[in-house]
Amino acid sequence: MPHLTDTELAALDAHWRAANYLAAGQIYLLDNPLLSRPLRPEDVKPRLLGHWGTTPGLNLVHTHLNRVIKERGLEALCVWGPGHGGPAVLANSWLEGSYTEAYPDITRDAAGMARLFRQFSFPGGVPSHVAPETPGSIHEGGELGYALSHAYGAAFDNPSLLVACVIGDGEAETGPLAASWHSNKFLDPVNDGAVLPILHLNGYKIANPAVLARLPEAELDQLLRGLGHEPLHVTGDEPLQVHLEMARAMDTALDRIAAFQHAARTSGALERPRWPLIVLRTPKGWTGPDRVDGVPVAGTWRAHQVPLAGVREDPRHLRQLEEWLRSYRPEVLFDAEGRPVPSVLAWVPEGDRRLGATPHANGGLLLRSLPVPPLERHAVKVGKPGSTLHEPTAVLGELLAEVMRSTEERRDFRLVGPDETASNRLQAVYDATGKAWQATTLPTDEHLDRHGRVMEILSEHTCQGWLEGYLLTGRHGLFSCYEAFVHIVDSMVNQHIKWLRISRRLPWRRPIASLNYLLTSHVWRQDHNGFSHQDPGFVDHVLNKSPEVVRVYLPPDTNTLLSVAEHVLHSRDYVNVIVAGKQPCYDWLDLDQARVHCARGAGIWEWAGTEDGSREPDVVLACAGDVPTQEVLAAAGLLRGRVPGLAVRVVNVVDIARLLPAEEHPHGMTDAEFDALFTRDRPVIFAYHGYPWLIHRLAYRRAAHRQLHVRGYKEVGTTTTPFDMVVGNDLDRYRLVMDVIDRVPGLGVRAAAVRQEMADVRTRHHEWIRQHGVDLPEVVQWRWEDRGAAKPSG
Amino acid sequence: MPHLTDTELAALDAHWRAANYLAAGQIYLLDNPLLSRPLRPEDVKPRLLGHWGTTPGLNLVHTHLNRVIKERGLEALCVWGPGHGGPAVLANSWLEGSYTEAYPDITRDAAGMARLFRQFSFPGGVPSHVAPETPGSIHEGGELGYALSHAYGAAFDNPSLLVACVIGDGEAETGPLAASWHSNKFLDPVNDGAVLPILHLNGYKIANPAVLARLPEAELDQLLRGLGHEPLHVTGDEPLQVHLEMARAMDTALDRIAAFQHAARTSGALERPRWPLIVLRTPKGWTGPDRVDGVPVAGTWRAHQVPLAGVREDPRHLRQLEEWLRSYRPEVLFDAEGRPVPSVLAWVPEGDRRLGATPHANGGLLLRSLPVPPLERHAVKVGKPGSTLHEPTAVLGELLAEVMRSTEERRDFRLVGPDETASNRLQAVYDATGKAWQATTLPTDEHLDRHGRVMEILSEHTCQGWLEGYLLTGRHGLFSCYEAFVHIVDSMVNQHIKWLRISRRLPWRRPIASLNYLLTSHVWRQDHNGFSHQDPGFVDHVLNKSPEVVRVYLPPDTNTLLSVAEHVLHSRDYVNVIVAGKQPCYDWLDLDQARVHCARGAGIWEWAGTEDGSREPDVVLACAGDVPTQEVLAAAGLLRGRVPGLAVRVVNVVDIARLLPAEEHPHGMTDAEFDALFTRDRPVIFAYHGYPWLIHRLAYRRAAHRQLHVRGYKEVGTTTTPFDMVVGNDLDRYRLVMDVIDRVPGLGVRAAAVRQEMADVRTRHHEWIRQHGVDLPEVVQWRWEDRGAAKPSG
Question: What's B430's domain CATH number?
Fold first, then answer.
């Protein structure tokens, strides 16, 4: 047993009781916070909202983390998986004083306690869950599944940090959580901190038993050992006994962690540690009402939310609530002014060591500017547009390699992806760092590295969770993903965007590095993998979210990709989505042009069209995305040769939110700007990378919208050739020429013949590929001579 | 060791070699299928697409499943998790003849073999992955993670079925797969069939080692035992030895399964079986080229796709390919006409027992019409609209209970959800059946039932996978989910919609029951859980997908919900999304009216507006969703009292795809229909349940679109009151009245005063709730007297 004196034990218990009191008070009380007079119905909130069930367990964990932090001088962070137990984390933050530092009006006295209680789950107050508003948190407690991957993300490259992570038995059933256990095969005991999972089995979810809570203990232990952990059990409902067991388990766990780290850091031990894990079995709703209206509550699913629901109406409930609250003996926990007495605070750490005050949970405090190299070192040389080809992501890979090299000491940049870094052509990074891996290796393996900063696991959820945790604790990163399968993390990105939306408004939260997606292996080049791999809808998904957070870029070539990448890697508090190809792509813009174009976000490519500037164009060919850009440029060239005199304008859009009205998105254009690009009344044929109706949804308020015709992916896909994909979805250059002819009035019979010629090319190509299985080069290429412009620019 | 004679063993090996040959042939050959002459470059496809790595292992599994099916007379289905190994499953189907039955032109002879080879990953041919086109499959092999939940879904209520499930070591890293292991706590050995997981560890994913393949065997065994399985190991690269071990493992597994089922079914054994599982360790790309260009390929990540990539250009590669193909000795496996020789087919089962011919993989063959009771038994009585309130989902729960009762014997209907059935107010079903549960129970548990057909696990992924597997094998079901968190399965529903889109076009695939979502606990009533629980974007997500598959319904009250539910439960091959509230909701329509309204999908509610029919209305108030409908009706009432003479039309939309043009969706309206409802030129204020721009995206082509103003959820949320949620997003009745006044010309100063009155009410209410924490009843109610209509209808 640990070396706790009776006084020390009593102080732990006093802190825990104080936190329980403050948590229950938040759920119930509008007034009379110290119960200085008998409880009256009007002291109780008219609407009772909150989750009591998990709260006493969270308070126990917090109390005991305080002890080990203080005793060992630890730097620690806690991820509260059962974050719907918001009252617990708020209570602890108030007790340690970090809450008052963030919110000075919530003072650590009776008046502040009353405000703490009232604001909880109350209009104009704070959410019932752990949220950005909660000091010390990097983890919203609403949607479940991400606690452990967030914890590992926080621990990576933080060698002196302990990240405790409470995992509820409900959350443990989710897929993302189940996958993230294997994160321990990626944790480097030398350069990373430690993660201490605390599996809290209180037996029930909302209305059902939890699976892990109902396994025989031997089976559960096999599972946890098979997941690479050595479980330590804390079980009980008698507080003092549980305090002793918990203190012992914490000490054992931290001793083992320290020993593993010491061995790896001093003697270079290579064996993967079997990291400790605490299994905490305490009753749901522990210390709350045992029975209500004759049925059991504590220890059952009925304790999940509000154990006593009829307090304002039912005098027996009111009395039971008062008895419950008084059972914590608030009169000995708080002084007459409502301040916690010294013994309650005996184990509370000081300053930044407090869980509610750690800078790791307010990562912007620790964030350093990322050393992105000058783009000139990586930009491709461009002579005539379209006369050379590069793989955009491969060039980006070289830039990322340089970022990796220049952060070798700092270790604050990571690249994550589901086993696709090389497939996405970013393999140049392996010249600078390897792939994190702590499991067994074989001679045939390549690029595995115990200290690597490329993170690959075939779980988009784990990748996303790692990166979120890494960013939220003040570091930088990039997630590269097949475009179709990023939908796997739709719901996670929702939550991260919501987090950023709120945290941006909190003065005490400092900006963090943006969450950057590189979506490649995109819809137009999944001809080989087929229909299941074709989905460009993530852009639609994120554009439904808060415009102050979301940015979407579709760079059409290599240099524009570099320019966009530089921008997003320096940006803060955004979710940036970049869609870019990995296949050889024509180079259209040199670096200077690319920078100007990306800064504008959308612009006219004079050299690609046939305007002479003397009048409005007859038609606007607009494009967004690499493949649509190529098709639009080719269409412009076909029109130049075949419909002479037609004034074609080519507009390229990199930053898709530019299409939105200026009132609706910070990047949105004014109507004057929009009209200047797209005209007010000329036909606009827009070739877009994704679902065509997105463009309508963005541009419906514009004058040109009446004449806007959008081509894009309309869910026609299979295993075929790349060009057959664009033909199947009517995005190809020949179809675009036909669209122009169909929409520009007065082109006459000559144009009708051109239209027929285009239709014939499409038919012939279709027959060709059915026969030969590959695209016909002359149908799919582009040459400078084929461009639209009457005369070259510059 | 099993009782295999040398002849029997040789036949297994011959079948496996034949399948390997046919698989490699699909990846490589355009012609010369039997290698009847030396291989020439032009015999080889110009574009080599396919995944060889996993293929020999899948062929091994298929070969050995054949044996046990034939020997034991089993009814079996196999879910091929590594479905990118499409060539394997196609090869086996061709060998057993089921392929030719589905596709008569792919005959089981040399000509058919040539077509089988050519069509693979070729334009106009078949995808490289297992797909709907693949006989015997219920599982697309593109996105990974869902194999095991699909397998369990297939096994539920199929007591005589064995569902084998191959899980790749890559897929095993995904969250959905990791969660689905616990499905064994929900499998009833009495009424359900068996699932035999075969964990195929070939060591590598695309470019990385797989985590499970790199655990020490003892650690892996702990993990698998902790997941409730008893592992059986098959390891090797020497074919005959592996055949013997695999046969032994299969026999052991099936003997144990039979014993468990017998014990449960005859003597009522209650202990949860530790179901067998096979761990199959064979090299990636086994039997393919060992080394290519001097580097190791077989047994490494380089074997993932095409081991020899330069066959047409490099004579050494061509020679190596020919040697590889000839190593299977095709001349002894196929006769001169290219037919498999009898010994190759010795272990192939007959008729429906063949894995490619099982009706369970073409569930429509087994599907029976669902006995949905007459709605009259559950419909609520409605006198004057809005004079009573019901919880729509609670009433639906009673109907579902009756469906449960009437399928008690048939057992072909299940309800799935992530621990939310009661929270979503469907708890009436517990009167008819319990919640499936095979783990430990306690006295405080409720409604748990070893034989129950309500499926609850806190994993949306597992719920979705179970239901998909259940539906694809010919049964019925409903998934009830919190609206916000259904995004967790965005990517899964993508894949299911893609599956249905393709399978609908295959004449041999019979229609299956639709996948039905009931999304409740929706955005407007997550005021208590806060911002993290507020997301109405799933509708946007699915409406990007194939219109022939997707249907979205927003019933505004209880009887419309019943009518929609009846429709979707009888429908086939759709994904139906129903968004409906669980909170008390005004009853607007009686059952007859509800049926007519739902059949039309959208209609004018004369009784709610102030038109007299003599002229076009001055304004259209449109609504979709329960909360918007209530607000629109209240706004119409406010306008009646305050702006007399204003002709207001109220239009309610249940079936949101009605707004699309008829050419774009089977439910879309013609312009004439649309104009008849919404007018061509009057202001339309549309109160929509979700993101407002969705309505613009659906209606941008309509004449009325110029005058369309949409209110909806614009990502403004927190923990507050229900009415504050609508006010915060400008969807409330007072704001709608202001919108009308702002948009209808010529209403004069009186209307300006009304506008100010409305603004004042909003401000006062805001102050009230900040003070009191609850909504002011008179601000949020609705009364019949307050309706818009000048005179009551009917």
Answer: 3.40.50.970
